[in-house]
Design a protein that fits this description.
The protein is an alpha+beta fold and 573 residues long. The chain has 15 helices and 31 strands.
Length: 573
RNA sequence: CGGGGUGUGGCUCAGGUGGUAGAGUGCUUGGUUCGGGACCAAGAGGCCGUGGGUUCGAGUCCCGCCACUCCGACCA
């Protein structure tokens, strides 16, 4: 491609709307343009990368034995009504009606439609196992689209669904997808970590997420360097450390009510009592569906709403409003405690080990001190409902865990029979008996993966594409387009590389060299061949985007080096 | 959904107390330049988000709406 003909534009300044590196760079380098909040158009340069990511995913899915098909994005409501998700998705689903008033949605994910389709085609155990996939546009009306294409309202997802006779079969299908995902993210040049994930209140026997470590990630990852344990922080199990081994602490002191007129937050209470947050227990009032419950965690802890939801088996969970809190506790917000509460009290397992701690007295302006569980109040349930923190013991080996943030680029999930039962997707076994198929589902965000590659591969000058997904492998820059020696040599290199299957840009614009270098760096082409003053002797400069220095070499050598590098960069191991 | 911010040329942004719309950058043309976003000159390009109000007169003041964005809540 000659740049003089290419539909693209680079921006010198960072568009005000972009906060993170990948978003800024995607806009500045002209890969894409925003159409509306969370909705983007890809321009030619960006679409080339997009298609390469897609293609890598496709190749690995095919290699794993999955079969590609494509379904509509515009979907009738019935299957979603049958699974119950027509309601569950709520406002996140884009809904519309046809001229006859029939309800449709723009598909947010396709479990129901795949299940329904398989059900109507496959009836025999002989046809199983089966894994189908598509690379298709999804729509979710996110409450808060963010970070460009990282969290957008329209995005392309590779979604795969496996159908097996039994759990052993599912394990095999799942493992194939797991391996395929590793190959995909390796080929994309991503530094990722695989973590155990929450399977939600609806069950399912296992789930893992592929996370790209990044400070802008929205999911917390807890991992252990000692034993390799890694889990989403919603999922990571917390184990109890005894509060202390000292005798004084373990002796139960007598309960005391203390006037704490202006102290209602943990910080204020710490000042008032002059002790650390570890000596308090927070009592949080929650609305779980239509039920009001209390949940207790230590003062320096965060309650893990996912764990609490799973424990309660509820669909919706939110902090109770102040009116409800006052009604249930009989006190203003900030003075809730477990003693005398009429509602269920879910106690974090760590709190159950505490002695002589401080809680609200359910009376405005008062707290209790020297509180002890069982003596002063009873827990409805004692369970791990807190979020793991850096330095907490690893649930596997006990070594201190680390906590970092990650971008979820892939998710694999053992669904079990949730959808096959709801939609009556069954097969006949050897005995002529009907059984529900055992399903798995597997997703990769194409746009998000692309953004994640940029997030991990950039510097102050722009993007640094890995060869495997670069929009072009090589950019040839004649320094002076009016110099016929330079132009002739550049054209020669350009056409020879193209002839050997290398994807090449020729910057034939009549621009100053600085402009061309800046653009080449910004759009991140991995290999740059500069044809300058020594063109007459056939000498050019060979420079890699990720390295600082170039080497002077003959044009022939440069061509060979580029061909070799591209071959290796695209090689599939 | 709650709270904050911003809407002026493709992009980044100026436009006290109301008086005919600006800069930089990008774009076009000509010239001088030519190895890391050159310089000079001449141009093109704006329902100042939108609807209403106040006023002789509104980019500017008042009210409504919309969009974008940040923080929070939420997130199969």
């Amino acid at each position: 491609m000659r740049i003089s003909n290419m539909f693209f534009q680079t921006l010198r300044e960072v568009p005000a709307e972009a906060e993170i590196a990948s978003h800024q760079l995607m806009l500045r380098s002209g890969l894409m343009r925003k159409l509306a909040s969370g909705i983007y158009s890809f321009l030619p340069l960006g679409y080339r990368v997009f298609r390469k990511v897609e293609q890598i995913v496709r190749e690995e899915m095919d290699r794993a034995g999955a079969q590609e098909l494509i379904m509509s994005a515009l979907l009738p409501a019935e299957a979603y009504q049958a699974s119950g998700r027509w309601e569950v998705f709520g406002a996140e689903m884009f809904r519309l009606k046809d001229r006859g008033g029939r309800e449709f949605c723009l598909g947010p994910t396709h479990e129901e439609i795949f299940t329904d389709t398989v059900k109507s085609v496959t009836r025999s155990y002989r046809s199983l196992p089966l894994t189908l996939y598509q690379i298709q546009t999804k729509y979710r009306d996110e409450r808060r689209p963010r970070f460009g294409v990282m969290r957008s309202r329209e995005f392309v997802m590779k979604d795969a669904y496996s159908f097996d006779r039994d759990d052993e079969g599912l394990d095999i299908s799942y493992k194939k997808m797991y391996d395929a995902y590793c190959r995909i993210f390796d080929r994309l040049g991503l530094d990722y970590i695989i973590v155990d994930a929450d399977t939600g209140a609806m069950g399912g026997s296992g789930s893992q997420e592929f996370m790209v470590k990044s400070s802008i990630g929205e999911s917390g990852i807890a991992y252990c360097e000692a034993c390799g344990y890694a889990a989403n922080d919603e999922k990571a199990e917390c184990i109890v450390q005894k509060c202390c081994e000292g005798e004084k602490c373990c002796e139960e002191l007598s309960l005391e009510k203390v006037a704490t007129p202006d102290a209602r937050t943990i910080d204020e209470l710490m000042d008032f009592f002059g002790c650390s947050a570890r000596e308090f227990a927070k009592t949080l009032i929650y609305k779980a569906d239509d039920k009001v419950v209390a949940a207790m965690v230590r003062g320096d802890r965060e309650l893990n709403e996912t764990k609490l939801m799973n424990l309660l088996g509820c669909i919706e969970l939110e902090m109770a409003d102040s009116e409800t809190v006052e009604k249930v506790t009989g006190a203003a917000v900030g003075f809730a405690g477990p003693i005398g509460l009429k509602i269920d009290v879910i106690v974090d397992s760590e709190v159950a080990e505490m002695k002589n701690f401080v809680v609200g007295a359910n009376e405005t302006g008062y707290h209790y001190k020297n509180v002890n569980i069982n003596r002063d109040f009873k827990a409805t349930v004692v369970k791990d409902i807190r979020t793991i923190k850096e330095g907490d013991p690893c649930p596997k080996c006990g070594a201190p865990v680390k906590v970092e943030f990650g971008i979820e680029v892939g998710h694999i999930f053992k669904l079990g029979t949730k959808y096959s039962k709801a939609l009556d997707c069954v097969y006949l076994d050897e005995n002529g008996k009907e059984n529900p198929m055992i399903m798995g589902c597997y997703g990769i965000g194409i746009n998000r993966s692309m953004a994640a590659v940029i997030e991990q591969n950039n510097d102050e000058n722009g993007i640094i594409w890995p060869i495997s997904v670069a929009p072009y492998h090589v950019i040839v820059i004649p320094v002076n387009t009016t110099d016929s020696d330079q132009m002739e040599l550049a054209e020669k290199i350009y056409s020879q590389l193209i002839a050997s299957g290398v994807e090449v840009l020729l910057d034939d614009r009549d621009e100053r060299p600085g402009v061309k270098f800046k653009d080449a760096d910004l759009i991140g082409i991995p290999i740059r061949i500069t044809v300058g003053k020594k063109a007459k002797e056939g000498i050019v400069e060979y420079k890699r985007r990720k390295e600082k220095d170039f080497t002077a070499t003959t044009a022939e050598e440069a061509i060979e080096m580029a061909q070799k590098e591209v071959r290796e960069g695209c090689a599939v191991k």
